[in-house]
Amino acid sequence: MGKCEQCIIKQFNSLKALTKEELVRISGCKTSKKIKKGEVIFEEGEVLNGVYCVRDGICKLSKLSENGKDQIVKMVVKGQLLGQRSLISEESSNLQATALNDMEVCFIPKSEIFADLHNNPKFSFEVLQDMAHDLRDSDDIIVNMAQKSVRQRLAETLVYIHKNFGTNPDGTLSVLLSREDYANIVGTATESAIRVLSQFKKEGFISTVGKYIKIEDLASLKRVE
Amino acid sequence: MGKCEQCIIKQFNSLKALTKEELVRISGCKTSKKIKKGEVIFEEGEVLNGVYCVRDGICKLSKLSENGKDQIVKMVVKGQLLGQRSLISEESSNLQATALNDMEVCFIPKSEIFADLHNNPKFSFEVLQDMAHDLRDSDDIIVNMAQKSVRQRLAETLVYIHKNFGTNPDGTLSVLLSREDYANIVGTATESAIRVLSQFKKEGFISTVGKYIKIEDLASLKRVE
DNA sequence: ATTTTAATATGATATATGTCATGTTTTATT
DNA sequence: AATAAAACATGACATATATCATATTAAAAT
User: Fold this and answer.
1) pLDDT, tens digit (0-9, with 9 covering 90-100), for A84-97
2) Mind spelling out the 3-state secondary structure of A131-179?
């Protein structure tokens, strides 16, 4: 099992603020885990006893609505921490985490994180900044949900995924989502998401390579009204 | 001007984690301010040089959407801190704060807050918990926006205001919002908000006393489908 | 007190989106 | 390879909500 002190992944999250000694200590009690595509990492209502540091892959965070739909609230990729919010508020998780492709994560027990949060102000400030950033993102999502059309939201989702999660060598979006996933991000019916994507295809904004989506006209997608 | 060490308000927010000495120091450089109903406390894009501790009154945090509507994302009341997210991320504010009634706030300079965030882990943990809580709320709002009807969202808004901001002696909601405000919370057209509120009145779920709304049947409002 | 302005209310209609049905294609399973 | 099961696609129609128009009422301003 790899050592946290030497792991590059930590550069991308708050763990970078830890000292060498703290990392060695954490390294000693962390557990690595492989998670298969589609597997649930934790469920809504589950009590988390630590955080996950995502070494590879991507997952979705969703919340079941009363109408039976599973609204996707956020996606967490390689480099990011997973479960920090629930850990800090010491409540059970309000979201379910599901792997969107094969993942590799390290689980760090709560006690270790808490120790560092209380002893290393640099670390807790990093976590604070992280959450402040998430909060800003949430505000934007709320405004989009409330004020924009499905067409606009879907266009923005594609642009967001392109920008943040990148593309494969052939230019297709590296994250593979089902039409239902797209619907659950945007907050619409699966059929509506399908229709809008078909429309984007007709308009030449996107193309599809098998199940993968390729953005053909980013500028137009950004301009969608 | 009152002293922070003796102020009861701090019991309701993260400032309670500060030591007596820290409070005395903050007390020395804070400034009190009265804000009239309708006044803007800070604008979207404005750089905040500190946080506000709300001693009295209530304000709305909103974000202007491209379609010209001003989506209300959160309300901040007496006892809470205002502007902490922007302060921590060291970005300009992504939201505008507007007083919903006459307010009394204390402004605490950024340097003081930062000093304590870096030196008092109890304090920074309190702020962390605060933000974790806000994040959870945001998740819920996103799901509601995405999956519930205007009628449901408006019913929930009334229940939320009733529960969190309380009532006047005559039972009316103590927070006075225009129909436009309700529309901007729920993310709908003003006319739609008016229609739904009229409907609630017809159904006997609420009544109105002048501009004030009184909840007559909380159970039914909670059950609105 | 009168006028002006803003807020609330309601009808008529347009539009976006949801729902249901059905067909096709792709992916899994035997 | 054949079958079953998902995922994707599209039409027809229902419904929620937005928009525009126009009253009515309440609050400000003169």
Assistant:
1) 999 999 999 999 99
2) HHHHHHHHHHHHHHHHHCCHHHHHHHHHHHHHHHHCECCCCEECCCCCH
A63 in contact with chain B, both atoms CB, cutoff 8 A: yes
CA distance B43 to B96: 4
Tokens of B87: 């302060």
- pLDDT number for residue A2: 85
* Rounded distance in angstroms from the CA atom of residue A38 to the C1' atom of nucleotide D1: 28
The reply to whether B79 touches chain A by the CB within 8 Å rule is no
Tokens of A208: 């599809």
- Which residue's entry shows tokens 């309190």? B126
Closest residue in A to B183 (Cα) is A146
Determine the Cα–Cα distance for residues B111 and B198; give it in Å rounded to an integer.
49
pLDDT < 70 stretches in chain B: none
Q: Does A121 touch chain B (CB under 8 A)?
A: yes
Q: Token pair for residue B225?
A: 């489908």
The model's pLDDT over B109-141, given as tens digits with 9 standing for 90+, comes to 999 999 999 999 999 999 999 999 999 999 999
Q: What is the DSSP letter of B47?
A: P
The reply to whether residue B143 touches residue A67, judged by beta carbons under 8 angstroms, is: no
B169 CB and strand D closer than 7 A: no
pTM: 0.95
Round and report the angstrom distance from CA (A211) to C1' (C27).
Answer: 11
